[in-house]
Amino acid sequence: MDHQIFEELELLLKENRFNSLRSELIELNEVDIADFITQLDKDQTLLVFRILPKTLAAEVFAYLDTDLQQHIVISITDRELTSLVDELYIDDTVDFLEEVPANIVRRVMAVTDRETRETINKFLKYEENSAGSIMTSEMVEIHSEYTVEQAITQIRRTGVDKETVYTCYCIDKQRHLVGTVGLRDIIFASPDMLIEEIMESEDAIVSVSTSDDQEYVADLARKYDLLSIPVVDSENRLVGIVTIDDIVDIIEEENTEDFEKMALLAPSEDTYLKTPVITLAKNRIVWLMVLMISATFTGMIIEGFESKLALIAGLTASIPMLMDTGGNSGNQVSTLIIRGLALGEISLSDYFKVLWKELRVALICGVSLASVNFIRMYVMGLITGSHSEPQQYMIYLVVCLAMLAAVIVAKLIGCSLPMLAKRLKLDPALMAGPMITTIVDAMALLIYFGLATLLLTF
Amino acid sequence: MDHQIFEELELLLKENRFNSLRSELIELNEVDIADFITQLDKDQTLLVFRILPKTLAAEVFAYLDTDLQQHIVISITDRELTSLVDELYIDDTVDFLEEVPANIVRRVMAVTDRETRETINKFLKYEENSAGSIMTSEMVEIHSEYTVEQAITQIRRTGVDKETVYTCYCIDKQRHLVGTVGLRDIIFASPDMLIEEIMESEDAIVSVSTSDDQEYVADLARKYDLLSIPVVDSENRLVGIVTIDDIVDIIEEENTEDFEKMALLAPSEDTYLKTPVITLAKNRIVWLMVLMISATFTGMIIEGFESKLALIAGLTASIPMLMDTGGNSGNQVSTLIIRGLALGEISLSDYFKVLWKELRVALICGVSLASVNFIRMYVMGLITGSHSEPQQYMIYLVVCLAMLAAVIVAKLIGCSLPMLAKRLKLDPALMAGPMITTIVDAMALLIYFGLATLLLTF
Asked: What number is the ipTM of this complex?
């Protein structure tokens, strides 16, 4: 959006030239109008919102954030509210009502006609993040025994208020979903053909049930490249659709959730800047606490070996390197596996394939890292002249072998834990970097100290 | 997809009942047919592919992976190939040609008519991941001075081969993009209205240029809830469109790239299972190496303090806990900031807001963690009877203060580095967990040893 247009609009607003403002606004995209309204102060918000034609006003309303929506709903008259709810799509109304206090829900319900109210109530009862909670009931339904001509008439008559008309849903007399047909196929068909002749019939249509998780809905839409996906009840009767714009939002939401889980953050409801400090702290503290306590085990391993560490110079200095490299190696593979599982590119039956692959990758990475590390230690030894110290080369060997072992262990744990989580029906995303690091740290040190005890004389 | 249907199809194939197989297949969704073909052996693949009616065959082809596509293209006759390329959408053909060896490209080009060949050549020249490289040229164009009736005739006449007909693009005589109009608005308008009366005109339409990055294209489509987005050249002439199915794929691709970058993996071209071991190792080794070397600085910090560490029991044991907690704290905030920047929820101008927020979050988290840690050490002290050792309480104080400081430093670095990267036009995703951990580790230990030197007597 051009910043210049915003300034022009603000000038018109400041000079109270509402007619010009209105005619400028209706030329704009509703998303940009929402952006414009959002950065005004609250009195102006209402003023500009009221200038808009009612259909456009409802479109803009759907793109405002909850605070602003609430402000508008509280401030407008009952009559304006009735017309707003009337113009809004059911799913947008439900989204809004899910976020606001009960008194505002009551106010909205009071001005809504009975039928819409019943639909809204039904939708509000679906579990959060289920297909039922994100669907809209505004789809085009046509009977499968209609002709193309009848269907077009039906679409023209009922389609104007629907969220999409591009996929029409074919039902039988009991409202069972029996097919889908693209508006495109209707347009290109001859008028006297029957809808059931041109529709995609049962085997080819993809539908979800009201209780299915939104992630599953998004996965199907992505896999089958659908513009909308029908939602049916337990008896295969059509109750709603989920449209692609909502699916795109779900995909981003689910990705954000994965990012958060992988950093061991409790999922947030709101954007970062809007989340209060205390909620941010609460979302983070539990896992930090758990991992802090776990890290004391690593500490105990060091403590148990401390008397020996002091005897040979240079052993302690390699601890951070072994821990970090182990953690990073594990993090890399767990990220790939978590992502592969989420996108359906890896399934549980691939476990041994993955393990075998990671073993080979670990060998290549481990040997390279150990070699570079050997060179580094050797060069440092030349500079500091520590080669003359007793068993110096043996120390190098211990560090390099420990490095190789740490990388192998890290890769194997990094690929196994996410798949184990999936197997136990937990979210694989929890088995990401921080969790892997904590486990690999302890293992790497145990191996390191074990090798030192075995190969060095104290 | 029902597994049972797959088994039925396999049975029909085994018994050579091709007519039944064909009539079963054409009832299915093209994505499921592609799934079915993918798990057959190579000879059967071709057999089943050839059974399909040619339009359906092209649809299925677009969902096969490159290996299988290549196998089919090599095996079919020139005539079959001509008809396949004819039925495929340009963007699917280009996607395929970008992946295969030159001799296959030549074979495809040889059987293609001149006009298509020129378009393909033009598309192949656009930079990878640019709007030009992902667009298709199969969109419906209508002149803005047409009537609705003329437009409908035009759509019926030219629309059948187009990738989408649901958004039509309005052009003037010089092919400049002057508006867009939904098929829905055309259907509901009266036949004698002019397209320019019902189209969204310039201020409201969103377009991209051929050189724009695909991530930007996806961001716009997501923001404006578009089903397709027009691509124009430097003189605002319409050259193609990007459709929502490709945009959904781009969104997942960009997310995968972010996940990979955050784990410091070089981005992969292929799915995990298909990537060879050596490529996987190569994608991981560079950053592992860099971070391994960096971790030696942390080691040097420990080494410098080693003589003192040996003097007081219990100091070394807290090192992993401080390092891990610091790393995890930094990882949490950097993930939130990277995600917020990617989704446009946080902008660079919010820096001080973010910093102030994180400072407060860090105080809450740091004080809680330090307190729990104090209790843990106190209880452990009771059990082991170490309270009687000299300056034991002072050691607890040093560890807890270091913990608080480490969390504060980690949170501030964790929010600053991604934003700094963005400021420097680098990818913020690089400033994630592993990178933050390496930096925070060193800082945490410096603070720890600093406090120990200040408060303890050795």
From this structure: 0.77
Q: What's the CATH code of the domain at A34?
A: 1.25.60.10
Q: Kindly state whether residue A9 falls inside one of the protein's structural domains.
A: yes
Residues B138 and B234 in one domain: yes
Cβ–Cβ gap B244/A244 under 8 Å? yes
Residue B223's CATH number: 3.10.580.10
Q: Within a domain: residue A322? A: yes
The residue of chain A nearest to residue B415, with distances taken between CA atoms, is A272
**What would the pLDDT profile of B10-64 be if each residue is shown by its tens digit?**
888 888 888 888 988 888 888 889 989 988 888 888 888 988 988 889 889 989 9
* Residues B346 and B448 grouped into a single domain: yes
Same domain membership, residue B350 and residue B228: no
Do B159 and B64 reside in the same domain of the chain?
no
Whether residue B342 is found in the same domain as residue B372: yes
How far apart CA B249 and CA A421 sit, in angstroms, is 26
CATH number at residue A402: 1.10.357.20
pLDDT tens per residue, range B147-202: 988 888 888 888 777 778 888 899 888 888 998 988 888 888 888 899 888 888 87
B458 vs A: CB within 8 A: no
Does residue B93 sit at the A interface (CB-CB below 8 Å)?
no
**Is B421 in the same domain as B286?**
yes
From residue A241, give the alpha-carbon distance in Å to each of A128, A159, A223, B225: 16, 14, 17, 16
Domain of residue B190 covers 134-246
The pLDDT, as a whole number, for residue B409 is: 92
- Residue of chain B nearest A432, judged by CA positions: B263
Residues A251, A254, A260: CA angle, nearest 5 degrees: 140
Question: What residues of chain B, 299 to 358, have a C-beta less than 8 Å from chain A?
Answer: 299-300, 302-303, 306, 309-310, 313-314, 316-321, 323-325, 327-329, 331-332, 334-340, 343, 345-346, 350, 353-354, 357
Q: Does residue A258 sit within a domain?
A: no
Measure the CA angle with vertex B171, ends B170 and B172; round to 5°: 135
Name which of A281, A276, A275 is nearest A256 in CA terms: A275
A430: DSSP letter:
G
Question: Which candidate, B195, B178, B196, B180, places its Cα nearest to that of B236?
Answer: B178
Sequence-separated (6 or more) residues with CB below 8 Å from residue A234:
A209
Tokens of A274: 């809007």
**DSSP-derived secondary structure letter, B206:** -
